[in-house]
């Protein structure tokens, strides 16, 4: 199953961002050219969160001891041993990742073929991701969002994922042609939806 | 872009603060970003009582009042601009309450029960405001230039994980942190890195 976990625009080029899916910690990062990766948020060296790291010259660098990982998830440099040819077995643990309709979608290896669950590729622009202090199942039941994790409502795409057992996140995107007024209105509606979900 | 050089002279204001205190950090950060020279005296009492600024022979207490005094000397007038819709007052309340909660958590050695819930209550209005500002094309609480309100809110935003509010749940706040961190002159404190 592909799951929406962030807005595309919330992972800027040359930066890393944290995400969680059902408690699993994920780092999303882009190189300077905008190529997106999703990996387990855990450095293979000593387990530091890679989302605390930084992106330089197409590599994600761990903040702790500076190990550098390229887009293939392989460790390419260990600064304490600069001459070392790093063994190919030292690598981060990647998720499958796609961008579609303004959102970032991830899947684990077993579910990566399930493409038909994604919405079509209407040109969309992310509006806002917002946390809801309710479990995913409760939010899905109240909003009618199915197992695919998304729904079209009033011209907006709403994605949903469970960050942990108690907290979900809604991800909203609108067609790129939406006016500023429509975006403002949908923003207000999203906040009201969140508040209603938490009050239920 | 480099930070404006902040000259520390004999007449520079003196901060009596504590290195691990987020309120003392707010003052150091404010002076650095504003380009105002600041002398520093370590005073452990600041951990509980908050920092004190000695300026022109007077003691100034309260982070907001200290930042207001520093903003008088700032090179850019944007620092002294009050944020719209009462956000300077609101950010001051968020900063103070966050600091109290964080001290309690650090003293206990772990986040206390309920602190995450209160962190949500404190930081959600900030997240909502920053999301609206971003949509309006502004990176900060009042506009495109940071001001005192942003400084007051910054430690609560950047250190929210100390109260078990992880940053994946607050993307607008994350964007705000990145924007202030990129501002010339930015300073770090333990728990807040400067690397992007
Ligand atoms: S933990 Fe990442 S480099 Fe050591």
TrEMBL record, chain B:
A GO molecular function held by the record: glutathione transferase activity
Its EC number(s): 2.5.1.18
Keyword Transferase: yes
Keywords: Transferase
Principal EC category: transferase
Protein name: Glutathione S-transferase
Lineage of the organism: Bacteria, Pseudomonadati, Pseudomonadota, Alphaproteobacteria, Acetobacterales
